[in-house]
Write a structure and sequence with these properties.
Length: 249
Amino acid sequence: MVFAGSTLVGCEGLAPPADGGGPSGSGVPADGDGGGDGRAVNPLDNPDGTKPGLAAITSTEDRARARDVIEKVVTKGRGPRTGYERDEFGYAWKDSAPRDVPFSHNGCDSRNDLLKRDGQDLRFRSGSDCVVMALTLHDPYTGKVIEWTKSRAIAVQIDHVMPLSYDWQMGASRWTKDKRESIANDPLNLVPVDGPTNSSKGDSGPASWLPPNKKIRCSYSVRFAQVSLKYDLPVTAPDKEMMLRQCGG
């Protein structure tokens, strides 16, 4: 989901693609793991999501560690979507999420925090060290490099790895407003990615949608599991099975 100017573009409520993939994104192919960003960090070494990127998990040892994380996730069936509204998780990209959320109350909204975390060659609005006007993004979902400017804001969207509508159906409908605002703004659950690819995801879990970049699918599954465990949210049994499969399970 992305907030750009006065336009809200969601990753939820859209039909997931039949093949579990998505558009190839924009930009040019990048070399190396996880979109070629040498700054990208293995999610196993980034449990709070404050470090940049989503590096591929490749070693046999790390893939075993990844399966150990995913195995801890509890499963249940999806509940109804009844009553879900984006506003139930607070105003998009607010800086006033509960103070235990990394980056909150730092004078910069969540969207710009994430652009700064993952972007390179950052250019800011004159007089600001918050509002990003242009950047280079090594997109983990497509493995491509995107040269982004604010004038085409929705070309890069901030994905909720565990979609908010999914959260709602798995138990967040019974949470306090503060807890919903936390998961909506937690950098552990947020990744700047190619806009069209994010839009293709809808509110799908891993059994229905995975990043087109196959190198990153184990890392994506680990991040999905990390959010699930932090917020004590179950996933569906097919989603957990697919997550394990991406890491060799």
